[in-house]
Amino acid sequence: MTAGQTGATETSGLASSRTAGDGTMVVAGRYEIDLVNPLGSGGMAIVYRGRDLRTRRSVAVRTLRTEYRTNPASRAAFRQETRNQALTNHGNIARIFDLHEEQEAPWAVMELVPGQTLRELLNTHGPYPPGDAADLLDQVASALAHLHGKNLVHLDVKPENLIIAPDGTVKLIDFGLAQPLGKPAEPISGVAFGTAAYLSPEQITGDRVDAASDVYTLACVMYEVITGSPPFGGVAPDTINPAEAQNTILRAHLDTVAAPPSLVRPDLDLPPALDDIVLWALAKRPNERYTDVTAFARLFRGALEPLGIDATTTPLSYSSPAQNTRTASPPASHQPYLPPRSATEARLRWNEYAPASAPLVRPSQLDGGSPVHAQLEPTIATPVARPSSPPVAQPLDAEPVFAPARGRHRPLRRLRRFLWRMVLVVALANAILLVTLIATRGAAEVLPFQPSIARDVAVLIDDDMTNVRVGPGIGESVIASLPADTELTVTGDAERDGAGDLWWPVESSGPDGLEGYVRADGLRAVPDTWLERQSVRVSDAIDGALDPIRDAIPDL
Q1: pTM greater than 0.90
Q2: Are strands 45-52 and 31-34 parallel, antiparallel or unpaired?
Q3: Annotated catalytic, 214?
Q4: Boundaries of each Protein kinase domain copy (predicted)?
Q5: What is the pLDDT of residues 325-371, one digit of tens each?
Q6: Is 445 exposed, middle or buried (0-12, 13-18, 19+ CB in 10 A)?
Q7: What is the domain-level CATH number for residue 80?
Q8: Judgement on whether residues 82 and 219 belong to the same structural domain of the protein
Q9: Are residues 298 and 249 in the same domain?
Q10: What is the pLDDT of residues 404-461, one digit of tens each?
Q11: Among residues 135, 156, 276, 292, which one is catalytic?
């Protein structure tokens, strides 16, 4: 479908009196919109180029697609998205100028940002050099920090939502998934919404999202910026089964450790110091990532400075003369890197190929909770020699070959062994306690889901020739003596006699209409549910097996 066709399709349903014959229309008596050549479109919205007739300023005008314009939920989401973006006032976030709602459609008037999206630049020119990537990260992190200060989280940071102006300024757009900090991720139509390659684990599972969620999505973007691909791949337009590919990516976000960037693209000579910094931002648990997005940016740039890598004043743009020096894909001689199957495998591979002097950088916090970045070790003051050959690719069905584990992991293994032993000791102690209680008190008092006696519950006589008395007490007159397993119904609450024994008021359902009191130890409740019946069956079996032992040991 051509741009003109798209525009014509999306204008159906608008008030014809507002549309001119040259393919333009005026909204709110102020904004002239070019309907013929849309600037872009997404899942629910489409963006047109426009002009403010009062100020003569060029603007971008966003509205809902035709199929969503009459949907109240879609219009409410559009309104909330616009208001969230309007709350911001930052040089790296596209500004909102106006929101105009009509019966036919809502219109959001925003800043028109010239330039290209980061996606277009990556597709055309390949990954950024580390110094330019650091400048890009600084700007995006600054925008997100401003957003977090407004108690909002973006949740949709991806190359398509970052526009690079000719002067190198980065603009963050598309607040369709933005929501307040600290709340569970809001699904759309019951599923996680967003681009699979850049979703944080908590967005996928519907857990609480906060600033650490944006740290993760931004780390996915930076991983692609410096290597040419997201940490767990993406869904290509020509994928035969996109749903299966997307599910694979989502599972990888939840349980697969990303490969170190310097090993994924050894042909790009990425500083190994960046590996820890990027992978820590990709931690599966939010509390293990940088809680402050600007700390991620400072660490990223700080890893480059001791190596003498200078960032340019603006990120690599489509007008840069050196834009074709880095390819989007590895050279033909580069063997593909198979992602590790577990965190242990990732650490072992990393130990084998990463230089021994590469620093381990971890996010840390002051006692007051303010995030700070760790200082890099002085051992990286000069560039470190890289291995002579890249890691050898492994077929999917092959067993991985690891380098011998170094001594740094032995304390951890000792701790694991100690913890497992403690678990076994506690489990054994609980098993002994359970056996003791069953032997001394009986299985019926220990096992769960045993039926209990209460008002209106059916009960059975437990012992043969149990007496039914006129009142609660051993001195009351006997009405009848009933055989075992006679069924009665409890008619009220239990009462105690002078000796402290508990008596239940009961009646029989037979023609004699017997009513009286039976001592509690002479009754047992009839199991009502499947669980109660199974629990009684098991407890009876256990007690039956233990009765000979109890008879042999009277004091047990």
Answers
A1: no
A2: antiparallel
A3: no
A4: 33-301
A5: 555 555 544 444 444 444 455 545 545 544 443 444 444 443 333 33
A6: exposed
A7: 3.30.200.20
A8: no
A9: yes
A10: 434 444 556 677 788 888 999 999 998 888 777 777 766 666 666 667 788 888 888 8
A11: 156
